[in-house]
Amino acid sequence: VHHASPANIKNTTHATLTVGVGVLKMSHLSHCVRFRSTCKAWKEEYTQNP
């Protein structure tokens, strides 16, 4: 059984969270870019016809 030290566990968790947040931000950005025109059109339509 491999016993990881608390420091190693903390570093690994921090790295995993950092990567996870980075991936989430990237996917969110690409999602925003992809659907920006659609959202804009929908907002304009919704604003004109509430």
Biggest sheet architecture: none
Q: What is the residue-averaged pLDDT?
A: 77
As residue ranges, the low-confidence spans are none
Strand content: under 5%
* Coarse structural class: mainly alpha
Q: Considering DSSP H and I runs of 4 or more, what fraction of the residues is helical? A: over 70%
What does this protein structure show overall?
This protein is 86% helix and 0% strand. The N and C termini lie far apart (63 Å). It is rod-shaped, with a radius of gyration of 20 Å. It is built from one helix and no strands. By secondary structure, it is an all-alpha fold. The longest helix has 43 residues. The protein has a domain of 30 residues.
In short:
With 50 residues, this protein is mainly alpha-helical. The chain has one helix at 6-48.
Q: Can you lay out the helices and strands and say which pair or pack?
A:
Elements: H1 6-48
Main attributes?
50 residues; 0% strand; mainly alpha; rod-shaped
